[in-house]
Give the backbone structure.
Amino acid sequence: DVKVTQSSRYLVKRTGEKVFLECVQDMDHENMFWYRQDPGLGLRLIYFSYDVKMKEKGDIPEGYSVSREKKERFSLILESASTNQTSMYLCVTAGLAGNEQFFGPGTRLTVL
Amino acid sequence: AQSVTQLDSQVPVFEEAPVELRCNYSSSVSVYLFWYVQYPNQGLQLLLKYLSGSTLVKGINGFEAEFNKSQTSFHLRKPSVHISDTAEYFCAVSGYGRAQKLVFGQGTRLTINP
């Protein structure tokens, strides 16, 4: 059974903290994506990666960075968390064909 | 680069009425198109997708969508809605091949009134 896991379902952090969100997939997919989902704004792409050590900025990369040292693992890093980064964060994976996506369960991050 | 616009943020309809949720996209490359549904407090679930072939695509729960290349649209339709269709619906577009983005629209909240 296909599996995309995220390190936490709920996370509470303080302003200024460095935050790591991790996504792991077991499908050998090349493409991995990080989104944030906010009411009325849909899913906005933060970063994506199409191979190990390869990354591309999405539509809202400011305040975030990513790391992909191994094919199965894609990490999202908030260098200095701010309250406006309170959101639901979703990891999505897809094969090179791009014709099917798989979603992680999401991490609801609250920054106080 | 790809982009998606869902033309209505909210659509209220009466039960058993037909509904159309509109989606337009732009892309410099050939694309795949998707519709996802998100029920309250749940994750996204695939409704249907267009990859190639027939431009009319049928999905789950009686939904269908038509790919119109000349108008760059992929509108979602259902001939008769049910209360259980109350949810948020997302249109998405993906290029295919290496390093292609997967982009979602802003979502349309469908509310079914009895």
